[in-house]
Specification:
Blueprint (H helix, E strand, L loop, with lengths): L5 H13 L5 H11 L4 H16 L1 H11 L6 H17 L3 H10 L3 H16 L1 H8 L4 H4 L4 H11 L1 H11 L6 E4 L9 H4 L2 E3 L5 E4 L5 H5 L3 E3 L5 H7 L6 E4 L6 H9 L5 E6 L5 H10 L5 E5 L14 E7 L14 H4 L2 H18 L3 E11 L8 H10 L3 E9 L1 H4 L4 E8 L4
Parallel strand pairs: 5-6, 5-8, 6-7, 8-9
Antiparallel strand pairs: 1-3, 1-4, 2-3, 9-11, 10-11
Helix pairs in contact: 1-2, 1-3, 1-5, 2-3, 3-5, 4-5, 5-6, 5-7, 6-7, 10-11
């Protein structure tokens, strides 16, 4: 029989996550299925796992305050699960302590019980001391990233951004204008406008039928910025070069009114089935899909083919750490330079595919100037014929949506 202790499932998921190569969201799905969890227990598992990952440094600081000495990895994860429930999730003390202790191996149950009961007794002290901790510990972000943002945005804006990243992200959906039907008035009562046309925050669980019928697409409003700048038109031939999972592709097709050709490529062939399924669900009839690595030169028959090109390039994801909760722990400062090289190659290889009067839109979900403004400046320096027509940036602490950047480029007219 599967172990239906949600805390045990959370610990198992954390152990799997620590070994790498698995994302937190997929771990929730996997362990919920493996343990046959009810919807409410799955929601609790999700809250605990993401709560631990959002607050990992803070939890470790508290655990170190409550229990001096070394801990093996599994015992530390069990304590993270317990302390997170007690101090951050507001779960009743008796349930958090008893259920967490029962998921531990017998030799360490006494230790787990003692530390968790100390956490209950020291709750007020731990909370009062939290405000004096360094930002990297208090907000559980890598120290190098906190320093980088403080230099870039200033102390106050950085703390707002760090706080933003540690809040559970709401489910925001976009209504799909390509769907043959729409939500009825009763269904729309679950939606609250977020101040951007066509986007709504969903209250409660997302009905599976809404996505299966392509009535909506789960998407942050910051995503629209790139497609609005690109301004696709019906009848054009457009390339979405880094398309999976297809959110921007569906926006492009909607702007084209399903009239024209939309080539959707992605470097990872294993992601194509999901991309194809999403495009089909969103009622795209003009999309073609193909696996292609844009760090290589494009096929000759693609040269000069496209009216508009969207390059939503691989990036550090620093603008979406609220949604990609565990990405902060995978990112290293040197990776930003490495990603810059990849982005540069993609730009250089996509450029020949543009028609003479075409438009190229470069976008990231990064907050880093090295991946955004500086990348575009370097590209223009290397290609004097490139003109920057417009650019936009979304900053969470300013705009209230995920962070993103978009730059619209064109070849200067020779006339």
């Amino acid at each position: 029989m599967p172990d239906k202790n949600v805390r045990r499932a959370a610990v198992s998921a954390l152990r799997a996550w620590s070994k790498g190569h698995v994302y937190a969201n997929s771990l929730v799905d996997r362990h919920a299925r493996r343990n046959h969890l009810s919807p409410s227990d799955r929601a609790l598992l999700n809250s605990i796992l993401l709560g631990v990952l959002r607050n990992r440094s803070l939890l470790d600081h508290w655990i170190g305050t409550l229990r001096k000495g070394k801990l093996d990895h599994e015992t530390r994860d069990i304590l993270r699960v317990g302390v997170c429930q007690l101090l951050l999730l507001g779960i009743p003390d008796h349930a958090a302590v008893n259920e967490t202790v029962s998921c531990a191996r017998k030799p360490v149950r006494g230790l787990i019980n003692a530390v968790l009961r100390r956490a209950v007794a020291a709750r007020k002290t731990l909370f009062s001391e939290r405000e004096e901790l360094p930002p990297a510990t208090r907000f559980s972000h890598p120290g190098w990233l906190c320093k980088r943002w403080t230099k870039q945005f200033g102390k106050n804006a950085t703390e707002i951004l760090l706080t933003w990243n540690n809040q559970p992200a709401p489910v925001i959906v976009r209504l799909n204008p390509l769907a043959p039907s729409s939500l009825d008035p009763e269904q729309e009562e679950a939606l609250t406008p977020v101040g951007v046309d066509g986007y709504y925050e969903l209250e409660g669980l997302l009905p599976s039928s809404w996505t299966e019928e392509g009535l909506i697409y789960v998407q942050d409003p910051s995503t629209r910025m790139a497609v609005e700048l690109l301004a696709p038109q019906p009848g054009e031939i457009i390339l979405d070069a880094c398309a999976a999972p297809g959110g921007k592709s569906s926006l492009i097709a909607a702007a084209m009114k399903n009239n024209g050709v939309l080539l959707c490529t992605d470097v990872n062939e294993k992601r194509l089935p999901r991309l194809i399924e999403n495009l089909k669900q969103q009622h795209l009839t003009i999309a073609e899909t193909e696996a292609f690595d844009w760090t290589r030169e494009a096929p000759i028959d693609w040269h000069g083919r496209f009216d508009r090109i969207l390059l939503d390039v691989p990036c550090s994801n620093t603008g979406v750490l609220r949604r990609r909760v565990d990405a902060r722990w995978r990112l290293r400062s040197e990776q930003i330079a490495d990603l810059g090289d990849v982005q540069r190659r993609i730009l250089n290889n996509a450029l020949p595919c543009l028609k003479p009067e075409g438009r190229l839109l470069y976008s990231t979900c990064s907050l880093e100037p090295a991946e955004n403004e500086e990348q575009i400046e370097a590209f223009q320096s290397a290609h004097p014929g490139i003109e920057l027509l417009d650019s936009r940036q979304s900053l969470p602490f300013r705009d209230g949506f995920d962070g993103s950047y978009a730059a619209l480029l064109a070849l200067r007219s020779r006339s």
